[in-house]
Amino acid sequence: MIQAIFFDLDQTLLDRTTSLDHFLNWQINFFQLIPQREKARFIQRFLELDQNGAVWKDTVYKKLIDEFKIESIEYHDLLKSYISDFNKFSTGFPHIENTIRNLKQQGYLIGLISNGRTPFQEHNFYALGLSEYFSNILVSEAVGLRKPDPEIFNLACKQLDAFPEQCVFIGNNELADIQGAKNVGMKTIYFHPDPQINSKISDANLHDYQDMVMVLNQLSINTTPENTRQ
């Protein structure tokens, strides 16, 4: 019987692509970085250099300042803005709040396991307005562990007093999220908003959070959990 459901953050709960687009539009305008006609190219180049969050933004901003010949501001000022202001543009995927609330009402324990820096990731998560439904929040830098290391998954389960076999992990990265969770015995759900993109190694695929219960049923899970240990 499933007791706990864990989520990844970026591109799973947080629509990072949309959030970045909104933030960068604001940052370009606020700091008057480039002419408006170059805005789309700047944002596209940021996304390319960022590599889905794998490259920290000091490197990204250094390259952008050089490529776009920006002289009005230093990279560390833009980095400081990114760290302090990005969370103001945090945008969740559609239907995520109702889905999380319903899972909580059904009795599931809910947790977060995210790779990334602290407190940056926590602030992005808090801005989604979901934290009251979560029983634990693990960010890799804060605990010194990083997905797909099995120890970060085991730590999350231990904090919720649940065995990995009693847990489901939902994420968008096949290596860090899906394979990492499978390696410790969790059930896995691969999330991607594009219905044409699926994982062949996850136990199920999810494209719209309105379908969450249906996907849980695909895992042959009784969606009424047993009495969980508090």
UniProtKB/TrEMBL annotation:
GO MF annotation terms: metal ion binding; phosphatase activity
InterPro entries xrefs: HAD-like_hydrolase, HAD-like_sf, HAD-SF_hydro_IA, HAD_2, HAD_sf
Presence of the UniProt keyword Cell inner membrane in the record: no
Superkingdom classification of source: Bacteria
Entry protein name: HAD family hydrolase
Entries under Pfam families matching the protein: HAD_2
PANTHER family: GLYCERALDEHYDE 3-PHOSPHATE PHOSPHATASE, N-ACYLNEURAMINATE-9-PHOSPHATASE
Cofactors: Mg(2+)
Keywords: Hydrolase, Magnesium, Metal-binding
KW Transferase (keyword) present: no
Gene3D superfamilies to which the protein is assigned, alphabetical: 1.10.150.520, HAD superfamily/HAD-like
Biological-process GO terms, alphabetical: small molecule metabolic process
